[in-house]
């Protein structure tokens, strides 16, 4: 039987056995069990250290690689050993058989004398220790001589002898399952067959093929010994590489673990600091709001004191001056008018100060109503026009924020009146994506963005720096848009 046929037969047997085994061993609930098994396996693998996971993966990959390398090397060594033994045996047998087949260059078969000589040769005790059977093939696949006489003059497939007819030595460790090998199978000993070309002495042409079966016990022992050596070398090399890789990865794994511990400690420290900072921020916000409330109360008290104190005294002075002017004819009227004018101006200024310091009750006002109120009061106080451009603003807002917005708009309008003569005064308000935006602009001469406002006498007052501090104390953002000749826009943004 041919080699391809043998391989096909083995493959069919293996597939059939494997399929049958899988079907018989598969229980009814196997898919569920497989899923549970995979989940447990993945969980256990994830719990392993990185170095262990690497070694397992490397052992799998490297093991498979070295397994195939070992198989390939073993197969090559086995093939080389068999081929070497076959060629040696072929040269040995050619020396015995070629003298008896020279007549086949003229005839199609062997003479009775040649057959008798070959039988006598096979009875040799020294030859029987190595060679158990001989066949001589004609070029058409007919057996012209065989130790098993039942095969003589029978024709068989030419798969193996075709290569030998080309002058090559063909060999294989056979399972002896071909039809012509029944005699050899019944010997029940390990054999390997060799096909050797037999040539004409004169022309060197291949005139027949000699097939002989040699005892394979010693050859198999030698092959097994070499195979063991190969696998020992491959195994030792694989183990050495895995050990080296393990120690290298283990070292890196320890470094990573130390870094992870350090990072966890830093993360815990950062978390603690974040919590502490958040608590401090809340305290700062509460303190700022409380300070704003106390500041407004203080301003109200100062305004009330001005109204109830100096304002009343100045009023009394004006009344007394009127009485004095009526009952004293000798009083210098020009001096009286000067004193009355000064007192009147002082009273007006004190009342303006007290009115500016004391805020109206804005607890119950919405942001829209508050902005309308501050614009209206500015118009009443200055006689200028204030335009409102208000979008959809929140109905509710904290009191500190309302106070801050009122003071911001009030001071920005005062600056617009003082430095832009109240031209183009506009209050804008909008609420977009959680951001409250308040803007006061004018059409004055403009200014530098970081300028601080001061009066003609050089006295400092609550200007842009004060506005910035007031807005930023509540977590807002303060900005100025201004350029010479294009007016000024003062912006405050608060995140609600």
Automatic annotation (TrEMBL):
<keyword id="KW-1133">Transmembrane helix</keyword>
<dbReference type="GO" id="GO:0051539">
    <property type="term" value="F:4 iron, 4 sulfur cluster binding"/>
</dbReference>
<dbReference type="InterPro" id="IPR005467">
    <property type="entry name" value="His_kinase_dom"/>
</dbReference>
<dbReference type="Pfam" id="PF02518">
    <property type="entry name" value="HATPase_c"/>
</dbReference>
<feature type="domain" description="Histidine kinase">
    <location>
        <begin position="405"/>
        <end position="496"/>
    </location>
</feature>
<keyword id="KW-0418">Kinase</keyword>
<keyword id="KW-0408">Iron</keyword>
<keyword id="KW-0479">Metal-binding</keyword>
<dbReference type="InterPro" id="IPR036890">
    <property type="entry name" value="HATPase_C_sf"/>
</dbReference>
<feature type="transmembrane region" description="Helical">
    <location>
        <begin position="54"/>
        <end position="73"/>
    </location>
</feature>
<dbReference type="GO" id="GO:0016020">
    <property type="term" value="C:membrane"/>
</dbReference>
<keyword id="KW-0004">4Fe-4S</keyword>
<dbReference type="Pfam" id="PF07730">
    <property type="entry name" value="HisKA_3"/>
</dbReference>
<keyword id="KW-0472">Membrane</keyword>
<feature type="transmembrane region" description="Helical">
    <location>
        <begin position="230"/>
        <end position="249"/>
    </location>
</feature>
<dbReference type="GO" id="GO:0005737">
    <property type="term" value="C:cytoplasm"/>
</dbReference>
<comment type="function">
    <text>Member of the two-component regulatory system NreB/NreC involved in the control of dissimilatory nitrate/nitrite reduction in response to oxygen. NreB functions as a direct oxygen sensor histidine kinase which is autophosphorylated, in the absence of oxygen, probably at the conserved histidine residue, and transfers its phosphate group probably to a conserved aspartate residue of NreC. NreB/NreC activates the expression of the nitrate (narGHJI) and nitrite (nir) reductase operons, as well as the putative nitrate transporter gene narT.</text>
</comment>
<keyword id="KW-0808">Transferase</keyword>
<keyword id="KW-0812">Transmembrane</keyword>
<keyword id="KW-0411">Iron-sulfur</keyword>
<keyword id="KW-0963">Cytoplasm</keyword>
<dbReference type="InterPro" id="IPR050482">
    <property type="entry name" value="Sensor_HK_TwoCompSys"/>
</dbReference>
<dbReference type="InterPro" id="IPR011712">
    <property type="entry name" value="Sig_transdc_His_kin_sub3_dim/P"/>
</dbReference>
<dbReference type="GO" id="GO:0000155">
    <property type="term" value="F:phosphorelay sensor kinase activity"/>
</dbReference>
<dbReference type="GO" id="GO:0046872">
    <property type="term" value="F:metal ion binding"/>
</dbReference>
<dbReference type="InterPro" id="IPR004358">
    <property type="entry name" value="Sig_transdc_His_kin-like_C"/>
</dbReference>
<dbReference type="InterPro" id="IPR003594">
    <property type="entry name" value="HATPase_dom"/>
</dbReference>
<protein>
    <recommendedName>
        <fullName>Oxygen sensor histidine kinase NreB</fullName>
        <ecNumber>2.7.13.3</ecNumber>
    </recommendedName>
</protein>
<dbReference type="GO" id="GO:0046983">
    <property type="term" value="F:protein dimerization activity"/>
</dbReference>
<keyword id="KW-0902">Two-component regulatory system</keyword>
């Amino acid at each position: 039987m041919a080699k391809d046929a043998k391989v096909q037969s083995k493959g069919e047997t293996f597939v059939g056995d494997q399929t049958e085994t899988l079907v018989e061993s598969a229980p009814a609930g196997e898919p569920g069990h497989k899923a549970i098994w995979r989940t447990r396996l993945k969980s256990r693998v994830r719990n392993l250290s990185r170095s262990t996971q690497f070694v397992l993966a490397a052992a799998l990959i490297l093991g498979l690689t070295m397994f195939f390398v070992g198989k390939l090397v073993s197969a090559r060594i086995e093939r080389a050993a068999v081929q070497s033994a076959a060629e040696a045996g072929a040269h040995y047998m050619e020396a015995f058989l070629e003298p008896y087949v020279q007549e086949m260059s003229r005839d199609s078969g062997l003479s009775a004398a040649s057959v008798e000589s070959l039988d006598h040769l096979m009875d040799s005790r020294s030859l029987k220790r190595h060679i158990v059977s001989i066949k001589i093939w004609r070029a058409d696949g007919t057996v012209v001589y065989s130790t098993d006489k039942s095969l003589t003059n029978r024709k068989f497939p030419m798969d193996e002898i075709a290569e030998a007819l080309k002058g090559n030595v063909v060999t294989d460790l056979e399972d002896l399952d071909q039809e012509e090998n029944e005699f050899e199978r019944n010997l029940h000993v390990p054999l390997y067959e060799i096909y050797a070309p037999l040539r004409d002495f004169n022309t060197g042409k291949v005139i027949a093929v000699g097939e002989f079966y040699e005892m394979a016990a010693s050859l198999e022992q030698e092959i097994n010994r070499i195979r063991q050596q190969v696998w020992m070398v491959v195994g030792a090399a694989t183990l050495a590489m895995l050990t080296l890789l393990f120690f290298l990865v283990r070292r890196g794994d320890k470094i990573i673990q130390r870094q992870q511990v350090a990072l966890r400690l830093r993360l815990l420290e950062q978390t603690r600091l974040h919590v502490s900072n958040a608590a401090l921020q809340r305290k700062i916000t509460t303190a700022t709001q409380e300070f704003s409330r106390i500041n407004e109360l203080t301003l109200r008290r100062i305004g009330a004191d001005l109204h109830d104190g100096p304002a009343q005294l100045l009023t009394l002075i004006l009344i007394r001056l009127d009485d004095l002017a009526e009952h004293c004819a000798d009083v210098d009227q020009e001096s009286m008018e000067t004193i009355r004018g000064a007192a009147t101006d002082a009273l007006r200024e004190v009342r303006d100060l007290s009115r500016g310091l004391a805020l109206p009750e804005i607890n119950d006002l919405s942001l829209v109503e508050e902005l309308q109120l501050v614009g209206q009061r500015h118009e009443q106080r200055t006689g200028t026009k204030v335009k409102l451009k208000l979008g959809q603003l929140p109905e509710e807002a904290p009191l500190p924020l309302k106070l801050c917005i009122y003071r911001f708009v009030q001071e920005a309008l005062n600056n617009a009146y003082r430095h832009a003569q109240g031209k183009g005064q506009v209050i804008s308000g909008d609420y977009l994506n959680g951001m409250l935006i308040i803007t006061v602009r004018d059409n004055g001469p403009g200014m530098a963005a970081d300028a601080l406002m001061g009066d003609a006498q050089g006295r400092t007052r609550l200007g842009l720096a004060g506005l910035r501090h007031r807005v930023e104390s509540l977590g807002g953002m303060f900005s100025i848009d201004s350029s010479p000749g294009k007016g000024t826009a003062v912006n405050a943004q608060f995140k609600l």
